[in-house]
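Observation: inputs received (chain + uracil).
Thought: call the complex predictor directly.
Action: predict_structure
Action Input:
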Amino acid sequence: MKTDFENVIVVNHPLCEHNMSHIRDKNASADSFINSLKRVAQILMYTATKNLPLSCCHVETPIAECDALKIDDSYKIVFAPILRAGLALSEVAKEIYPEASIQHVGMYRDEATLEPVWYYDKTPVSYSNPEKIKVFVLDPMLATGNSSKAAVSLFLKKGISIENIVFISVLAAPEGLEVLTKDFPGLKIYTAHIDKSLNSKAYIVPGLGDAGDRLFNTFEK
Ligand code: URA
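Observation:
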């Protein structure tokens, strides 16, 4: 579904909605939360990768030879999970396309300034052939847009054009979408839902709480 935001695609699917009802539920078990989040991620990922380039190949089935199509391996497909909640999405990415390169980027949110603080970057110092790279930046929660913006900027600085970068989030706040679409016209963003707003602590409302804490069970007791 097209939205008021340029290049923001809300993926509508009954199974997305069904699984969203599990992950939003504060009483969902850890098992239900993780697996439902991954099911939503799978639908998002299949939709967001639908324009990957294909090339022809020839294979032999047990019965006969035939022509077939495969992802054009002159392209490198990169999934870049923003640590740590993005890890759940990269697990799904690896399942649907094991040949992809997973290049983790790590930022935590300074709770006072809400600005991202880098602590990990597994991207190469430079890409030898940036025009042949397709990057999918993964973060289940697009909230203020600050860490998403830092991750997208990193790939742009390394020579990858905005047409070859896609952002995937399970939930997005209008505030974060405003930041990304204003700063990066041409960036394609796939999400399962655009929520109402952020609260004073920059959590998405109604959202699902802290995705990292719910994935890794790191709540303060
Ligand atoms: N990150 C989260 O995990 N949840 C939010 O609501 C916002 C940012």
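Thought: report the result.
Final Answer: Residues 8-52+72-216 form a domain with the Rossmann fold fold (CATH 3.40.50.2020). The chain has one domain: 8-52+72-216.
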